[in-house]
Design brief:
The chain is α+β, with helices and mostly antiparallel strands. It is built from five helices and seven strands; from the N terminus they run H-E-E-H-E-E-H-E-H-E-E-H. Strand 1 and strand 2 form a beta hairpin. It is elongated. About 20% of the residues are buried.
Length: about 170
């Protein structure tokens, strides 16, 4: 099913993660992972750690969010429910007909940042927790990324910081 989904997609990039998750939050199947760790997306108490997955398991929604995925970095994620149409009845609670979710995730890359920069007409940086994952800065701008990471560590990512002016390579 994952291969058919990828083949039918018109996206420029392939998803980095495609997963089928059970009603309990366990990973049932994951693209290119023959034996995924079922409980990888739950904590020690069995609670689902990704908010969008937990929400869609309870309510019939399609939702997207940004994940800081271990070992992969920032990812744009879409989550949709798997519905049991035979169990569906008028007035039936969503939780009773949702059997699991499908998760599709794309890494937030330099190519994506460059495309967004063209659309927005400004430079773009994907960052979290003082770490810069990707930017639209021109190639060879490692110094600019290092400066940005330093500023993030000084509170630039905090909306209460206000306006900060910086100089990077004399600009």
């Amino acid at each position: 099913a994952f291969q058919r989904f990828k083949a039918a997609s018109s996206d420029d990039a392939d998803p980095d993660i495609i997963a089928l998750v059970s009603k309990t939050g366990d990973i049932v199947a994951m693209q290119d992972i023959p034996n995924p760790v079922a409980s990888e997306w739950t904590d020690a108490s069995g609670k689902v750690v990704w908010p969008a997955v937990a929400l869609v398991l309870e309510q019939r929604n399609i939702i997207s969010e940004i994940w800081d995925y271990p070992g992969k970095g920032l990812m744009l994620v879409g989550v949709a429910p798997v519905i049991d149409v035979d169990a569906q009845a008028v007035g039936e609670a969503d939780a009773k007909v949702i059997r699991g979710v499908v998760v599709v995730a794309y890494a937030m890359t330099r190519a994506g940042a460059k495309k967004m920069a063209l659309d927005l007409g400004t430079e773009v940086a994907y960052f979290n927790a003082g770490r810069v994952d990707a930017t639209s800065f021109s190639s060879g701008s490692e110094q600019a990324q290092q400066t940005l990471a330093t500023l993030l560590g000084k509170g630039l990512a905090d909306p209460k910081t206000g306006i900060m002016s910086v100089t990077v390579r004399g600009e």
